[in-house]
Amino acid sequence: MKALVLAEVARFEVREVDEPVPGPGEVRIAVRQSGICGSELGGFTGSDGLRHPGLVFGHELVGVVDRYGPGAEPAPRLTVGAPVTANPLRSCGRCPVCASGRPNVCPHRQLLGAHLPGSNAEFVVVPADALHPLDGFARPERAVLAEPAACAVRAVAQAGPAPGATALVLGAGPIGLLLIEVLRLRGVGAVWFTEPHAGRGEAARACGAVELDSDPERLAARIGELTGGYGVDVVFDAVGSTVTRQSATRVVRSGGTVCLVGLHTHETPLPVRDLIRREVTLTTSFAYTPDDFAAAVELLRQEELVFPAGLVHARLEQGQHWYELLLAGDPAGKVVLEPPR
Description:
The chain is α/β, with parallel strands linked by helices. The chain has 10 helices and 17 strands.
């Protein structure tokens, strides 16, 4: 089969590799769409320490069931040829972390396209219980958004904004945009966002959010005006830079919540004493649980998530081109690579 392989840092090659064979309890998917995730850009440049040359990236996928492994019984909606997406995150299911209901942070977790061969290929293998059927989807290809949407569902649940609360989302890339949509569905009040790329800002405004200046000083001043000097109830950092993390802690109100989602920068100094004195809740959100993923699939099935940025379809062999464009700050929507059939 053809696969987009990281040949060396910052260089992909389309190679002919062996087709994966599903083992016991596994299923092989013929990939139709594979989204490029922002977290993969660090792997492409060699800065994330997780992805290495020789790996096939990709964990946001849509395809059709191709073949079941030994002992894997197809459910009625998941027979060979059925359109599916799949939860790409595997956990051990046995450790104390999994038992506590947080398999997303299982110390033994494995992710497609990081620890395991990913979906930037003609075929990918996943556990049979990771499958989600796409019957009822008017546009099955939109299920490629299930994985980032699950991240947004998880983050909003972690922050727990009350109905009518004010919210600020820093960064309106795919995760930020989906955060805005999930917040709207959860009944928050005013939703503001910052985003330096004009194209992304347009999509966020289409979701009903109001754009604010991303400059930290001007942002703080404007938030003060909008909230009578109190600050925002809940702030989500969907970027993960030092600037956005520090801005988030600056503009949140006393007693409010900051939810850190973005992973761009490794370490950031924060004003911990000030946060303690204002009793700010600092929470984090990583990936998603199986329930979060299932909820995201249903939101997409019912078309409650619009994602106005849209999908950009590209051939698998154009992967190098699109990774480079995204690294350069191209404000395109979700880029989706399509292997040959």
